[in-house]
Amino acid sequence: MDNLLNEPRPQVPAPSAFEHSLKSNDTEERLDIWFYRPIGFQIALFCAKIGMTPNTVTIISIFFGVAAGILFYSQELWINVIGMLSLVFANSLDSADGQLARMTNNKSRLGRILDGAAGDFWFISIHVALCLRSMNEGWTALIWVPGVVAGFSHVVQSAMADYYRNVHLFFIKGTSGSELDNSRDLQREYDQLSWKRDFGMKLVARTYLNYTNLQESFSPRLQKLLAVIRTKYPHGLPQTLITDFRAQNRPLMKYTNIVQFNTRVLFLFLWLFLDQAWLYFIFDIFVLNPILIYMCVRQEKVSGYFYQKIITGDDYGQKSI
Prior knowledge:
GO molecular function: phosphotransferase activity, for other substituted phosphate groups
CATH superfamily: CDP-alcohol phosphotransferase transmembrane (TM) domain
Distance between the termini: 39 Å
Oligomer: single chain
Shape: globular
Strand content: under 5%
Order of helices and strands: HHHHHHHHHHHHHH
Protein name: CDP-alcohol phosphatidyltransferase
Pfam families: CDP-OH_P_transf
CATH architecture: Up-down Bundle
Transmembrane segments: 43-71, 141-164
Organism: Rhabdobacter roseus
């Protein structure tokens, strides 16, 4: 009996370096975990070894993503396949920059802005190329209408998916584990910059402020919830609130994944293989937009629920973590 009592307890394995490079299992997509994150981790290890910064990796990804769009202009399938590989590599680099930032604790506001802008550059190139390709195939200039509408839809879809992911990370990991910003703080930082002295940074700050305003305009109930939380829990969220929010909000994360990169690109590749590239615009507008609407409505419902619970007196206790 004594031997049994004195037997050492099994040790819980410490998270691996790879696991530390991830944001959260709640927000990671299966394809990313199985494919992009392992590749990105190896790239991040190499970049850390040679001293390359996350922002440099992001900038390199822009070149590969834009090149992919240019290659999609051709109607030659083998050229399109090279474009597909280029886009996959661009996304691997996009994964690597975030993993490298977390591994080396080299996070920055500029890095976050660049990371978001990278995807926009990729898909601007892709949309322009597909419109020009369609015109070569006999479409009129009217093809630019669904091309532009799909492009704007993509911006909103990606912005809201990114925002909801960071809201979820804020609730389960706090400010240190998320990249959640608000327009109030960003406006204050923007006002402190001078167009004469800080032209480049002020232009970037203005763009990011507009991006954040867009996210907040689509989530009014969520903004009310975040405002009351900032007031009531300035030193951290109670564990019970974290647990309850995670349970109700976690199912929403699968929709943020659908409207992000992987699903749209798999279908883009399918349309290219079928030589029907114009269908990508239809898919973006009539399939992904309804998912965006459902995602926003669902998040607003969750936000409204927790807002009412907090303001009506159910404060989940005062102990915070």
